[in-house]
Amino acid sequence: MLSLVAVGSQGLNVGVSSVTTPRAAPKMEAAATVTPLPASVKAGVVTGEALWDLLEHAKANKYAIPAVNVVSSCSISACLEAAKEYKGPMIVQFSRGGGQFIAGKAANNDGDAACIAGCVAGALHTRAVAELYGVPVILHTDHCMRSWLPWFDGLLDANEKYFETNGEPLFSSHMLDLSEEPIEENIATCVDYLTRMSKVNLLLEMELGVTGGEEDGVDNSDVDSSKLYTQPEEVYEVYKALSKVEGGRFTIAAAFGNVHGVYAPGNVELTPEILHNCQKYIKEQESLDIDKPCSFVFHGGSGSSREDIRYAIEAGTIKMNIDTDTQWSFWDGIREYEAKFRPFLQGQIGNPEGETKPNKKYYDPRMPLRSGEQSMAKRLCEAAEDLNCINVL
Ligand SMILES: [Zn+2]
Fold this sequence. Notes:
This protein is an alpha/beta fold. It is built from 12 helices and 14 strands. Zinc ion (ZN) binds at residues 143, 211, 215, 260, 299, 321.
């Protein structure tokens, strides 16, 4: 289904293109009629007003945009390749640990220097190539708890510097996750940060309630289960406080039983109706004309049923994070490559075709990495179908 291109500057195609994965290719059925994209939304990285217009377009047309944690130019390429294929927007997302990995694990990380530099480098890389794929791209960073705020502050410094020269921020949006704290403290800190961020047109994603499971070294797998389900009153508190920030744009990751990671069926009970109840409650409290005043983010999307995902989208979910399934798919592509060419990958010289035959074209790192990219892109096209995010441009 994806275009299968020979890799390697020497034109050596040893058949990665024929590596198949067991998952069925998505049918790429177009969503029902989609309204035209707002003129502000163009190919390449979108920020500020264009970002908001794109998110509103998603809400109005009932699709959510996949957000994928990237760790290298390979995973960035896989995201952009998938978006080009499914013809929709993409959220390229950096975690603090992913940023450090991009900078290189040996880089000095005093004061989160490598975590900051790696995210900035990844954002600049994405900016340099995104337009070539012809799709709108959102640059975002993932969970940030209070003890990680030096990382967040460093990213905001980088945005402000970029804004001075370019009139827009380097990233599109950032997430603060102070959901472990009392709600008053969570909201107060979000208001402070949104006040700073709105001056350079950055959007804030905040978290309420706790996403269960484990991700990027943060383990919430033993958290009190009542915290996994947000109450409408709590979402309204956030809505009221953040709406007062001048020019402030925000989304809410409200917990509705979602968890990071993939677990055996039956361990997780998703209740997307919580999100519907929140919208209804806020509409009533504020006597609003619109049905879905909030924009929600779905964390821990890996392994969720299409039914639950679509029901969450109906409730105003415009972004879904997918990490675990894309991690697996990247690895699965490499695994398959190795399994297919194992006899050619045991030494530099000598394979089943002859004991003096060179194996360079098989162990060129681009070969297994490309297989990982293709597998990940394919999985993301399936995710886009779940999210109703196909042919929406
Ligand atoms: Zn998350």
